Amino acid sequence: MLRFGIAAALAATALTGGGLASTAAEPTAESFDALVFSRVTNFYHDSIPAGQAVIEQLGEEHGFDVTISDDPANFTDETLAQYEVVIFNNTNSTPQAGALLNADQRAAFQRYIQAGGGYVGIHSASGTERDWEWYGELVGAFFLSHPPIQELEVEVDDRVHPSTSHLPQEWTRTEEPYDFVTNPRGDVHVLASFDSKSYTGHRMGADHPISWCQNFDGGRSWYTGMGHASSAFTDEPLFVQHLLGGIQWAAGVIEGDCSATSERNFEKIQLDGNTDDPLAMDIDDTGRVFYVQRGGDVKVYDPATARTELAARFDVLVEHTHGMHGIVLDPDFATNHWLYLYYSPLDEENTVVARFTYDEATGTIDLGSRVTIFELPSQREVNAHEGGGMDFDAAGNLYVATGDNSSPCCGGYGATDERPGFEYNDAQRSSANTNDLRGKILRIHPEDDGTYTIPEGNLFPPGTEGTRPEIYVMGLRNPYRIHVDHETGWLYWGDVGPDARVDSATRGSRGYDEWNQARAAGNFGWPHCIGANQAYNDHDFATGESGPLYDCAGGPVNDSPNNTGLTQLPPAQPAWLPYQYEVTPEYPELGSGGRLAIGGPTYHFDGANPSEAKFPEYYDDTVFIAEWTRNAIFEVQLDEDGRPAIINRFLPGVEFLRPIDLQFGPDGSLYVIEWGSNYGGSGRGDPNTDSGIYKINYARPGERSPIARATADPTSGQPPLTVTFSSEGSGDPDEHEITYAWDFDSDGTIDSTEANPSYTYTVNGDYTAQLVVTDPTGRTGVANVPVSVGNTRPEVELVEPLDGQVFDFGEPVPFEVRVDDAEDGVSGAGVDCADVVTQPALGHDQHGHPLERYTGCTGEIQTIVDDGHDEADNIFYIVDSTYTDRGGDGVSPLAGGDSAILQPRHKQAEHWTSASDVVLYDTQEGTGNRMVGQIGHGDYLSYEPVNLRGVDHLRFRYASSGTGGTVTVRLDAVDGPVVGSGRLEPTGGSYAFEEVSIPVEDPGGSHELFLVFTNAEGDDYLFNLDAFHFGHTLLDGVRAARAAVRDLSAAAEEHAEALTQPQRDYLTSAAGRIDGELSAAMDTATDDPDFARRLDRALIFTHQARQWVGDAGLPADVAAALLAPLDEAAAALEGVIGSVDGVSAALAADGGEVTAGETVRVTATLTNDGAEAVRAPAVELAVPDGWRAVAAGPTSATSLDPGSTLTGAWDVTVPAGAAPGEVTLTGSAGYAHVGRERVTVPLSAPVVVRPAVSADGVTVAAPLFSGRTSAASVTVTNHRSAAAAEVTATVTVPAGWTAGSATATVAPGATAMLEVPVTAPAGGVVAGPLAEATLTASVQVPGVVVGGAPAARTYAVPHGDDLVLALDGGSDTSPVLESYARLAPSHAWDAARGYGWVTDAPLQRDRGHPDALRRDFVLDNRGPGVLRVTLPPGPHTVSLLTGDPDFSTSGFVVEADGAVVVPARATLPTGSYAWEQFTLDGGAAGRTVDLRLSSPTGNYWRILALLVDEAP
């Protein structure tokens, strides 16, 4: 066999093409044979020879044999059997270009892998055999596309595997960054990923694996998407070592774990699925899981019996966020049996942290053993943050996390409301109070006698005035789940932040949630600072004025009157890992969505741990965190400074339903509490049947435990109770047969081995039926089902409101609850309505904020938008109703419940339930509001639940610069029944919003509402959708009137001190009378005559109240405050009554526009489409000050018959000096109605005031020649119909430029073009970014307002006659700039011409824009290009223009005379240009010089222009 060095191998490969070549090596213990296959039928990578050569060299150096062959005939069983690994070295093929292997060869290769063979894929190996599904699974993912080659960061995920253990955690290199059709994470073990923040143009999103490995189909597969350039193999030892480790692992000669992030190698085992609001847990040394439930239960799961027992039930306050909060076991629990609980006792004022003793003999907690550690003041009047996490460090110190006990207030910004009576909105009294234990993490050392001591290193030494020594960390809002790393002593926690979505100039930072790390005591800023030390303004809530930002770095000043501690606070610490609702630029891996940060533990690998289920070494020193609303767990790898370096989603394909606590057990497995899919849980009437305690084991395929699932029907009732059990959902992930063993009565005896048995219970009791499934390896899975015999679960029905019902914030929502309990009776007859609890909550994204609780079977919920949110947020209402029965003889009580989600009448489109491939954009209105964009034909949005009762149309707010399209409203599916449809036409701009109403029908019931968007097939952009409104033609007006009546009551309360008691009584009575009629109207069909009568009476009462206010002699400000809502109510009612009577009105300006100084006809119409004539119809018009309106006919009549229209017209003259723009004209149309005053309908119509003269545009050539005069052409239009315009035009120019002026007389209605002289400054170009100049036109006409200030951009270059040499790069046929010479690829060196190529002809491109000089250029990426030019005697400045209008431009190198004269600059973005400049000397006699152009990264170099000028 032949031996090759790298250079020889490159040459030999070039000569032999696909022929066989191999290297031999002396056999070693790790000797193996490798086949290198580099065949292509598609794109050929120049790096293939370099890859072949380096693999040969590695074989020589490391003792393995290498065969190089591109012959597919080697893919037979006999030939492949000679090799331990087959390396696909930048292979590339497409079905169109032809496959690399035929069917027989593919089958042989598949058998080779299945027999234990190894595969290595390099770079475009993923772009190979793309029609072969098995190969795609072998490689891991198929290539999709790539952006330009660029420098980027590689994050090395696995620091243990032999192919990556030598790499730095962050590896900087230049690469062609591949995107893949699918993300392989979860299917393979990811070794390294691209940091998506470090480069541009990627399409896969934030998570971008690039090297990975897997045990696949019996064999081993290792792939890297890197290796595009030859330099990777010749100049990068780190990459070569990476490749070597992959080859050796795939060959099977070195160990390496390629399962650590593969979901096939983990099993999620349910320990207890019969949980009810599980919150927190701790695990003892035997693996028992002690966990608490919000309702007060402390339970213990014992792995020895696979059963959960109740250890204690505490009477706790389950309201707002109160309840049972946390649990932690004493470090010496095995001997002292102490555990600590954090809870809100029902019969005590304060929240308590107390120690209890667990009785091992009885399996219960001795409630009498309570030793109180802390009593934390806790207001319970409003919803507030409680915290509740606890943990011990290695020194036995106890950490306790407390919430700020403040409400989610203040618009989602800092909670610093210092107004009297608003103390619950001021976290300066708690979190920022050094003398208060709330909003903190406390650190103490519990002593055996129940006292505690203060460890060294807390934030304030004992005895410091105005402080509490227990404080370790202050400035927290709602710290959730704390964990101490016992190896480092570092403390981790999640902190739930406020809800503001956008930064505010007057309030400060948007909201962030935070995962935090504390290595020492500190202040973490709340409520003065948030996130990475972004500050809030010192806002005065009394005046609404904002002061300066708080000083986070220097330490905020807490001057709140509610503060009892220090005024000067310690410096605020920036968050360790903050994130926002949108994608967080620094941490895009976290995605977007709701926010609720859950702190988690740090895993430390222990090779001595005998557990087979322990997490692998890959996760050593990894911090695990969870995001509750995003149903996600993340792994965070730290850099050497302890900062987050690499973040990956843990098991992205595994479902985690609101993970709320994470712990590693003594077996090295991860234990997870899942809250379940419902927001509120049982404590808020919304029980989660899918909550549970889970254990995540690391397990190899074939060694995974079977899964047990058990259900029962019924689960409660009187004996004899026959229950049918089901094991549906049970199975084995390794596809083994399983056996079943049922114990129905918890006596330890197997009662049935059937899959789906039945059993009859005859004795009262609380039973736990247990199913154990077993696979042939002896591994088991367990599921438990509780059964209550002697009591029946109550049936609870929330009659009102309906699920999906639409509501207005601020309006009262009636509720009605029905209960039917087999033992207790029904609502009002056996069931005491006082025991029926209805708990509303303000839903926000994926969670809810509980509000005031109601008792009773009926009532009225007062809806609000609290201070922490606004109506643009994803907010809604949740109404939960529950009833807990009285239990039975020896049987525990059972609870039943029902719930409804209420949709806001105004719905932001981005708050969908599901959607097709659309994206979100800012509406650019300065509110942070978003719209749904890129809506194309066939796209959809859905919203669930929705009930269309009281809705007869949807009003869409949208914008479109596209084709427009049809919105079809469907039920429950994209092709479901249609309930409405309508067109949304183009609006003229992507942000030019308009509103269109589409009628819909109420089908009854609750549905998922689909908005399906269509136009012509292939239309990719129809429109952008901002929001939609659930409306009703008549009821919207009634709702508006009711809202005005509520405002009347609020105004009366605000001015109560200025009113006498009789006056207050009258206003209360009047509001009640009006609202009573309106409420009754809402409950009446709109076509019922009583609907109109109710409205009539409401309007009469409204007019009476207006009259009373006017006659009551009230102070002017009080009367005005009371009349305003009454006027609003009257206007709303008159509008509804007009619709009921069939009367409509409209106002319009002819043509919709008018020229300043001229006249337009404005018309108002009043149409009677009702059944009866109306009396005294009239129309009126109001115009702005300075405008003049002259009636052109009658504007009133005695009566108006059915089917008739009254038309009034006015000639409206606009002042000559009126400002251009849209003006809204207003008016009214009214008529007399029997029994009351007039019904008046307000009118409005937009009219666009055009300027008398407008500057419509300016054009200027690009480029201009320096020092030479050109012209800017200014287009002017005289919009007037009679008067000519004497126009003077000029342009404003940059400093150093000069411009003249031009004049003209423009006839009425004519357009003229004025040529304004412009001169760019003389001189050469300046090195650096191409300097563009903006020229803005200015037009003056005496006595006339001129509209428009158009602008144009250009740039200047020297004229060719002013240069020694002026070359315009491009093709042989592209335009050439005047006075410049063409530089084309065909221009070989020509001494007579004085320039030309001495290397092979380069390439050329002509983009067709933006101008003659920049549209076309010469370029190449196949290697260096050398341009020879003749230099005259003396020094000369050479200027080279580079850039590209359509693509980014990578930096390249220019060399002359053997030296680098232009180093590679940073990549220029698309559409950017720059001058590179250097000096060369032609000597005394002149000479030729060779300019060598090359790219160090294998990208294109580009020449748009080359100028040679005498040096200054």
UniProtKB/TrEMBL annotation:
The keyword Signal applies. Keywords: Signal. GO terms for molecular function: carbohydrate binding. Residues 905-1031 form the CBM6 domain. It comes from the Bacteria. One of its GO terms (biological process) is carbohydrate metabolic process. Pfam families: CBM_6 (PF03422), GSDH (PF07995), NPCBM_assoc (PF10633), PKD_4 (PF18911), ThuA (PF06283). Residues 1-24 form the signal peptide. Residues 713-729 have a biased composition (Polar residues). Residues 704-736 are annotated as: Disordered. InterPro entries: 6-blade_b-propeller_TolB-like (IPR011042), A-galactase_NEW3 (IPR018905), CBM6 (IPR005084), Cellulose-bd_IV (IPR006584), Class_I_gatase-like (IPR029062), Galactose-bd-like_sf (IPR008979), Glc/Sorbosone_DH (IPR012938), Ig-like_fold (IPR013783). The keyword Cell wall biogenesis/degradation does not apply. Residues 706-789 form the PKD domain. This is PKD domain-containing protein.
